[in-house]
Amino acid sequence: MDLILILTLFAGLYMAWNIGANDAANSMATSYGSKALTLKQVIIIGSIMEFCGAFFFGKRVTHTIAKGIVPIDILDTHIVAIGALSALLSAGIFITIATYYHLPVSTSHSIVAAMLGFGLAVVSQGGIELDQIKWYILAKIVSSWIISPVLGAILSFAIFTLIRVTLFNYFDINLVERIFRYLQVGTACYVAFAHGSNDVANAVGPIAAALGYLGQETPVWVLLVGGLGISVGFATWGYRVIETVGKRITELTPTRGFSAEFATATTVLLASYFGMPISTTHTLVGSVIGVGLAGGLASVNLKIIQRIVASWLLTVPVACILSIAIYTILVIFI
Amino acid sequence: MRFIRSVSDVFGYSPFDDLRKHAELAAKAVGLLERQFEAYKMNNMDEVEKLRDLIDDIEHQADIIKEEIRGKVTRSLLLSVDRHDLLNFLDVQDGIINYCEHVGHMLSFRRIKAPKKIMDEFSVLLSKLMETVNEYEELIDHMSRLVASSFSKKEVKEALEHVKRVEQHEHECDLIQIGLLNMIFNSDMDPIDAQLAILWVVHLGEIANYTARSADRFRLMILGRS
């Protein structure tokens, strides 16, 4: 039993590290790409803000991941611990493989699907009935996956159009961009905070469940661990991602970066408020497309929409089945 | 680099840099044509042929850029201008270089005997042509600022000033052409020489026409953007 908890903790830390290394870096690379911040500044600000978001605002989504999908209250704590470990392992393995192939998959989608897999495995063993899985919450989560990039696009379209109409038509472009370089520091913090608040749950939601989390409140130390994991991932690997991505997105000037980041952070924070585990990366892509639709970018590659939809269709079944498989193996051998 | 999940795929190929390079080649070709004609007047046929080959080279380079743009600007790109407007503009801009190539070859066909005032008038036409293309290049130089400002009213207005000037220059080219044709038809040149000289006039006129048309397509592109 103790071994399972320790393994769960490590798997959760690995998830947190991966989230920090890839997703946090992606969402903040815009600030580096537009030269609003240096790499060092991005790392310092990002780590602090990610941690704050996770620690102070991460509990609602964590609650959803831990208890919102599988009714852990009515299950044996040993079963829940094994399920949480299976979910984290399968999401972690899937994310690692997908990352290797540069697939734009989401950690949030993986962990939701993996928790569902755990639930289905319990159903197959007669632990609960199929309709005891909280399908209505799952439906809400899935619709939030579709709504969030669209909302990001609408917000960034509105923000950039406002900047264009009010500032670009009357002031020198270089001056406007120079001012937005400073304003963008604010949105970079905002996006890191929002990201931390939403994605910490992907790592610590299952840990909270495994700890026999029965009350309404998420244990504070769980969020602390998750926040630290994300910050460490961001600082130890994220800088590579930021460098690579930042160089490729120089088109995103400060005004465009500001619009995309503000829209993304607002959407993600809203999702955190409603306890919905969404993909920050997909929201960011939606927001960038919104800037493009507002005439802000020379060229946007719309094929990415296909790739994202394909990643949804791949992530959910694969992470779910993997979780069922790992759970079954663990139950048999432990 | 492995182990990266990245959002950078959302940024597509931007054709605007390549369009500018293509325009620069057009201006370069006209510049070479002017030099080629001066060499022709000096009776330096080796130089004429050398410059003809250089213009051929430029035409070839321009074709490569054009093919690249046409190949990469697919329907899955969301551009800040209409895709068809952009490709139409590119086609017309390519016409400038194609006509430079035609004239470059025509100059190397044969030595014609023409009165000095006709040859001098050709120089006048060519330098007017150069002015037209230089103005055109200034117009295209606005491209990056137009994109950076998301086609702000201010930038569009500034760019459109150049279109008017290109059209004015093209009109002046027309007048010089008419004068030249008048001179040729009223001279006692050898009929074949006169025929070739007329072809030069007509084709040089096409360079000016294509430059003005291309400027017009550029205007349509930046005004009709979606």
In a nutshell, what does this entry contain?
With 334 residues, chain A is an all-alpha fold. Chain A is built from eleven helices and one strand. Chain A binds chain B through residues 22-23, 26, 29, 96, 98-100, 102-105, 160, 164, 168-170, 173, 237, 240-241, 244-245, 248-249, 251-253, 281, 284-285, 288-289, 292-304, 307, and chain B through 1-16, 76-80, 145, 147-155, 225.
Structure write-up:
The complex is a heterodimer of chains A (334) and B (226). Chain A is an all-alpha fold and 334 residues long. Chain A has one domain. Chain A is elongated and about 70 Å long. Chain A has 11 helices and 1 strand. In chain A, α1 runs parallel beside α4. Chain A has helices at 2-33, 39-57, 59-68, 77-100, 107-124, 135-168, 173-210, 220-248, 254-273, 280-293, 303-333, and one strand at 299-301. The mean pLDDT of chain B is 93. The longest helix of chain B is centred in the last third of the chain and has 33 residues, at 153-185. Chain B contains 7 helices and 1 strand, in the order ααβααααα. Chain B has helices at 16-41, 45-72, 83-107, 116-141, 143-148, 153-185, 191-223, and one strand spanning 77-79. Chain B is elongated. Chain A binds chain B through residues 22-23, 26, 29, 96, 98-100, 102-105, 160, 164, 168-170, 173, 237, 240-241, 244-245, 248-249, 251-253, 281, 284-285, 288-289, 292-304, 307, and chain B through 1-16, 76-80, 145, 147-155, 225. β1 of chain A pairs antiparallel with β1 (77-79) of chain B, so a sheet runs across the interface.
Overall domain count of chain A: 1
CATH topology of chain B, what is it called? Methane Monooxygenase Hydroxylase, Chain G, domain 1
Largest sheet of chain A: none
The total of helices of chain A stands at 11
Count of discrete alpha- or pi-helical segments spanning 4 or more residues of chain B: 7
Give the chain pair forming the largest contact, with residue counts.
A-B, 47 and 32 residues
Q: Give unreliable regions of chain A as ranges.
A: none
What pattern of helices and strands is seen along the backbone of chain A?
Answer: HHHHHHHHHHEH
Relevant CATH superfamily of chain B: Phosphate transport system protein phou homolog 2, domain 2
Distance between the termini of chain B: 37 Å
What integer value in Å does the Rg of chain B equal? 20 Å
Q: Roughly what is the average pLDDT of chain B, rounded to an integer?
A: 93
Low-confidence blocks of residues of chain B = none
DSSP strand count of chain B: 1
**Total E-strand runs of chain A:** 1
Kindly give the count of domains of chain B.
1
Bulk shape of chain B: elongated
